[in-house]
Amino acid sequence: MPHVTFVPLTGLRVREEELLALGMSLPGLAARGQAIGQLPALGLLTLAGMLPDDWTCDYLPASRADDELIERVVAGRPTLVAISALTASIGTAYRMSDQLRLAGVRTVVGGLHVTACPDEAARHADAVVVGSGELVWRDVLADAAIGALKPSYRPARRMTRADWPQPRLDLLGESPPRFTLQTERGCPLACDFCGASRLLGPFEEKPIAAIRSELAAIRAVDSRPLIELADDNTFAGQRDPSELLATLEEAGVRYFTEADWRIGARPDVLAGLTRSGCAQVLVGIESLVFRYPGMGSKQAELARMMDAVETIQGACLSTAVSFSVRKERLASRLTGWCVSFTIARWRKCSLRCKRPFPARRSRGDWGGKGGCWRVAGGSFTRCST
């Protein structure tokens, strides 16, 4: 019987020597790393949900690809190993794939970084998946079963309302601390500091029936789950948000989501978020100075955005605010202003210097090492994630 091993590379990556020298003891950093590591790899779990009846699988999330993990995977003699990683962990994914191939195990890699850099990824795997894996996964399995993997798999069509298979939540074990759920894919905006609208293909909203079914599956595992909505900008689409909010309310879950300031001008959305169990909303202000191309109707004067955030908090919603800083040299000048500006208003705030991740139109604007700055408890800390 053919078998596939799913290996998502998870957790926090520390890249700066000064941060390593501090021993990972910066305020909130360890907690953030633990929270990131707890998030299920929704992409690979979704592919697991699409396996034919004659395939078996195992799911081995890992923060590093050490000898023990390699030996465990090889000992299972899988037909195929599917590896997924973001940019911060792609080097680890490549090294793991290289080692597995030396041991005679076939590998396929995918994810956002691979979609942006498929030629790079092809040097380290038997096959690469570019774009939405759901649309080509059955082809990958069929080819793997007969030992005839193609070097590259790309969808020939866009996703439809029927292309939202349910993830295999049983692979997470008993009582996972967090769940992830997608209500949409991509973003209808095209902000130049973000790759979501380019990497993920055309913006698509998941049918409410599929969301309701997935929530039921989550509640079957945990009657009071904590869910992170894996959306880039919930409520940015054209769908009436009332049905989504009602579905979340009916499910009786707690959840975290990301949105932009415009929800502060929508009393119906704020009331629905409060009723439906929203534990926190992350609001992207993006910049105190620049107005990035591609922001569409999200672009507004700073005072208007700040008023909207105050309104969101006034609805009794815990709010975290995120700023993007165009260049590190500029960030150093803005640091004092940003700290005094934000500490008085919000308990949680982060400032991020844009990194040159693939598919960002503004990669050429990047200067310095990048990273992020976090404001917490009146202190200002630079770190890298």
Q: Describe the global form.
A: globular
Structure classification = alpha/beta
- How far is the first residue's CA from the last residue's CA? 40 Å
Which ranges are low-confidence, i.e. pLDDT below 50, for 5 or more consecutive residues? 362-385
Strand residue percentage: 15-25%
SSE order and pairing:
Elements: E1 3-8, H1 17-21, H2 29-38, H3 42-48, E2 56-59, H4 67-75, E3 80-84, H5 90-102, E4 107-110, H6 112-116, H7 118-122, E5 127-129, H8 137-145, E6 152-153, E7 179-181, E8 184-185, H9 196-199, E9 204-205, H10 208-221, E10 226-229, H11 241-251, E11 254-260, H12 267-275, E12 278-286, H13 302-314, E13 319-325, H14 328-343, E14 348-353, E15 371-376, E16 379-383
Parallel strand pairs: 1-2, 1-3, 3-4, 4-5, 5-6, 7-10, 10-11, 11-12, 12-13, 13-14
Antiparallel strand pairs: 8-9, 14-15, 15-16
What does this molecule look like?
This protein is α/β, with parallel strands linked by helices and 385 residues long. The chain has two domains: 3-16 and 39-153, 3-Layer(aba) Sandwich (Rossmann fold), CATH 3.40.50.280; 178-383, Aldolase class I (TIM Barrel), CATH 3.20.20. 34% of the residues lie in helices and 19% in strands. It has 14 helices and 16 strands. The protein has helices at 17-21, 29-38, 42-48, 67-75, 90-102, 112-116, 118-122, 137-145, 196-199, 208-221, 241-251, 267-275, 302-314, 328-343, and strands at residues 3-8, 56-59, 80-84, 107-110, 127-129, 152-153, 179-181, 184-185, 204-205, 226-229, 254-260, 278-286, 319-325, 348-353, 371-376, 379-383. The strands form three sheets. The chain has an eight-stranded mixed β-sheet, covered by helices on one side. Strands 2-1-3-4-5-6 form a six-stranded parallel β-sheet, sandwiched between helices. The chain has a two-stranded antiparallel sheet with strand order 8-9. The radius of gyration is 21 Å and the shape is globular.
